[in-house]
Amino acid sequence: MTITTERPALSSAAAAYLSKERKLFIDGKWVAAKSGKSFAVEDPATQETIARVPAGDKDDIDLAVRAARRAFESGPWASFKPAERSRIVWRLADLLEQHRDEFAELEALDNGKPVTNARNGDVQGSIEMFRYMAGWATRLNGETISVSSPGNWHAYTLREPIGVVGQIIPWNFPLMMAAWKLAPALAAGCTIVLKPAEQTPLSALRFGELIQEAGVPDGVVNIVTGYGETAGAALAEHPDVDKVAFTGSTEVGKLIVKASAGNLKRVSLELGGKSPAIVFPDADLDLAIAGTAAAIFYNQGQCCTAGSRLFAHKRVYDRIVAGIVAEAGKMKVGHGLDPTVSLGPLVSKEQHERVTGFIQSGRHDGAEVVTGGNASAGPGYFVEPTVLAKTNRDMRVVREEIFGPVVCVQSFDDDDLDAVAKFANDTEYGLQASVWTQNLRVAHMMARKIKAGTICINTHNYGDPAWPFGGYKQSGWGREMGKEVMEHYTETKSVAARL
Ligand code: NAP
Ligand code: MG
Hints:
Elements: H1 12-19, E1 24-26, E2 29-31, E3 38-42, E4 49-54, H2 58-73, H3 82-98, H4 100-111, H5 115-136, E5 144-145, E6 153-161, E7 164-168, H6 174-188, E8 191-195, H7 202-213, E9 221-223, H8 228-237, E10 243-247, H9 250-260, E11 266-270, E12 276-279, H10 285-297, E13 309-313, H11 317-330, H12 349-364, E14 368-371, E15 386-389, H13 396-399, E16 406-412, H14 417-424, E17 432-436, H15 440-449, E18 454-457, E19 476-477, H16 486-489, E20 490-498
Parallel strand pairs: 7-8, 7-10, 8-9, 10-11, 12-13, 12-17, 13-16, 15-16, 17-18
Antiparallel strand pairs: 1-2, 3-4, 5-6, 6-20, 11-19, 14-15
Bound molecules: NADP nicotinamide-adenine-dinucleotide phosphate and magnesium ion (MG).
Residues 168-172, 195, 197-199, 227-229, 232-233, 236, 247-249, 252, 255-256, 270-272, 304, 354, 401, 403 line the site of NADP nicotinamide-adenine-dinucleotide phosphate.
């Protein structure tokens, strides 16, 4: 594997942000962690320390929750008209757009992802999310209800913001996960404590500056960097938090549910996946090859929707595998800040060990490494784009989420759609599935038969702010985006008046 790990120069804006001292954002002010502790942020391509951020813990979370409670109950935010909230959320999109390149660089440096993807995917997607959600602020209505009780009644519902929301996000799309969480919660009128992932805190902290600039009142958004086991756990169990919105692993999702029991706070979860991509023999093969390769290699495979189980019909199996191997061969591996790179490093040492461990386990269980399979010895957490063939349902690589650029290919020779759906559904997850075919009936029948929250036809890793997103089974609770996400951030109050 040839890797270019030299770090290209940063723009002056990104360099200026990195040279600053970073603090926690609580009640509209930048403050040090109470403990005075901090931790290092690493460039995963070079393993150099690029910054330090405060290690917030229980005490800082408590301050942030108090600020969010004050802002929710008695601050100016509580009396903002929907149109004022809408304008603020829209302004965040405009500000992000003005600083698009700087955010793309910070994201590439912190997470490792290719800067072009960061700009066109992460940052652009975040801008679109704020714009779309800005519209919901003025569209949250209750209803009048036709009741049948004797007498005359005026019955109606109110949609009210749910209150103080804790938001815990992962490292795979750091800014975009912050946008998915912040934009709808702000549109609904909630106040927020956001806990970014320890591996990738930079873009969220930089976004805190835009929140100030946009005129979001103090305490409405608070950002506390810190470890999951301390800051994250304190937020999940805090008795004055009304709701926790979490994205991350299924394992931690279960801990969040336990922690929420103390005050029965509302919980929504976006968890892992083991998404199938199913290629039927009549598929447009060029499209299917490029699409299923991107499904697993995009973002170094660190997508919760990654197409990590590829099922190819035996009549096209050889061509699909050869095509994906060729796509893998075309990828340029290196530092994410190099605009010609298409595959960056994994985010951390832990993920590097996890993914190489899975490749070893696949080999041990009899999978054939058709391409890739190697990891760099360092510096940098690089793993080659890898295709494992001759895999089967009993292998760990097929059952568990790898979260790396490793696809497990299986062939099928069944033309019965129920039988094909059975392979697809043979997982504890249910986040996404893609179906590759030119036959409308097959496409839409498969969409009905697969147990997953999102189905893609002739595409994969699809997303749009208007398109509800979430999981069946152990992939989560609830839906983000679309009008559905407003269920996460509002309560319905029913009013009945005897006339
Ligand atoms: P994770 O531990 O679930 O991290 C997600 C977020 O939860 C982070 O902000 C994390 O903080 C926080 N957290 C961790 N423990 C917590 C606790 N006890 N209470 C409250 N919050 C807590 O994920 P990870 O360890 O970074 O990655 C492990 C695996 O999770 C990956 O290999 C992948 O399979 C899966 N994953 C899935 C997604 C997804 O989008 N579905 C995203 C990321 C990872 P820290 O960062 O400080 O730990
Ligand atoms: Mg973790």
